[in-house]
Amino acid sequence: MKITIFAAGSQGDIQPCVALGKGLQQAGYQVCLAAPADFADFIQHHNMSFHPLRGDVQQIMASDTGRKFMETGGANPLRSIRAVRTMIAPVIMEMAEDAYAACLGADAIICLGVFSAFGQAIAEALNIPIIHVEPTPLLPTRSFAAPSWPIQKNLGGLHNHFSGLAMLQVLWFWYLPFVKDFRQRLGLPAYTVSRFHRTFKTTPMLSAYSPNIIPHPADWPDTVNITGYFFLDPSADWQPSAELEAFLDAGDPPVYIGFGSMAGENPEKMAGLVLSALIKSKQRGILLTGWGGMRLDLLSENVFVLDYAPHRWLFPRTAAVVHHGGAGTTAEGVHAGVPTVTVPFVLDQPFWGARVKALGLGTDPIPRKKLTAENLAQAITIAVTNPEMKKRANLIGKIIRTERGIENAVKIIQHYLG
């Protein structure tokens, strides 16, 4: 059976799909991953068939529009509609057309839930089944406020459910004009908002996070399967540099700080703030530069700047991890069993920060707009020295490492597809 996996976004979106694809290949499926062309080397390195999608997501996020969105546009769901449409307009139709081409000859499509409207159109046009996959919850529930909702507090079931409905509506408006155009090109009837909402309840969903982090809410349908995280083991041929190993061996475990693509409009200013926080907290640090190009011109012997290292290898060697709260980075942090400091910028990041705090795995999240060297230094100090937090993070890490998310997902796919 041939399966095409359609994914786009940051590496945090692509990497779980690569892990799932490898699991499906081991189970005997033929898998093609349709993803942005800039991930070609990463995907092919894992010996997976690859169909490139036009549109460089990293370039979009690094643009002036993308950086402004990371600083301001994502905090307000209504304002995000216009911002997202502006960012994706140059590439989204080409991306959808390429995804359709990647599914020609496939027996099924697995699609990231945020692109459900496009995936459903492809499945409908080709008359093949579709399964959703989500690294972050998408369905409304009374159990917690929706990711990307501005108020990440449990104000009761009614508020939580409303926030979920509202964010699904925002997702619908993000893509509405493009989905309409795409379906017309495929000769399909119009896609209504009621049908859009209904598909999330009726289409099988692989929820690629731990039931120990998000238990299955009672008001979610049985089509939602919380499998556990989709972790991707580091490549066997990756080795740390001698300089990195020497730094790790030269003192106490350092604090990891990396914001992925989220350095914002002024990465140089962010770098200075981070360095100041490390000095104030009297901690050694490893800084990952990320997409945002965060650099440090003024370095000390207590700071190591790194372009890349697998989180799976690096995080267990740290005293704490400081990051933006992306779903993938949060997963690696809890897997490592070390405390977390979350600095959320946009979208689902405040949700993961709040979840980490609620479970006792990290400090209060510090929204990007409120970040200072002083409050970051204070959070780092708490994460490194709080014994209960360290104990709790270590315990949950051990539990997460026993889960088999990919194996569970493959069994579910076999159940639906044969």
Main β sheet profile: 7 strands, parallel
* CATH level-two architecture of the largest domain: 3-Layer(aba) Sandwich
* Oligomeric state: single chain
Note the total helix count. 17
Form type: globular
Question: SSE order, as H and E?
Answer: EHEHEHHHHEHEHHEEHEHEEHEHEHHHH
Beta-strand residue fraction: 5-15%
Q: Might you state the CATH topology name of the largest domain?
A: Rossmann fold
Structural class determined from secondary elements: alpha/beta
Overall mean pLDDT stands at 91
Architecture overview:
This protein is α/β, with parallel strands linked by helices and 418 residues long. The chain has 2 domains: 243 residues, Rossmann fold, CATH 3.40.50; 159 residues, Rossmann fold (3-Layer(aba) Sandwich). 47% of the residues lie in helices and 12% in strands. It has a 7-stranded parallel beta sheet with strand order 3-2-1-4-5-6-7, with helices on both faces. It has a 5-stranded parallel beta sheet with strand order 10-9-8-11-12, with helices on both faces. Helix 5 runs parallel beside helix 8. It is globular, with a radius of gyration of 21 Å. It starts with a strand and ends with a helix.
Descriptive terms for the model:
418 residues; Rossmann fold; seven-stranded parallel sheet; five-stranded parallel sheet; 17 helices; globular
Fold blueprint:
Layout: E1 2-6, H1 11-26, E2 30-36, H2 40-45, E3 49-53, H3 57-62, H4 64-71, H5 77-88, H6 92-103, E4 108-112, H7 116-126, E5 130-134, H8 157-185, H9 193-202, E6 205-207, E7 224-226, H10 242-249, E8 255-258, H11 267-281, E9 285-288, E10 303-306, H12 311-314, E11 320-323, H13 327-336, E12 340-342, H14 349-358, H15 373-385, H16 387-400, H17 405-417
Parallel strand pairs: 1-2, 1-4, 2-3, 4-5, 5-6, 6-7, 8-9, 8-11, 9-10, 11-12
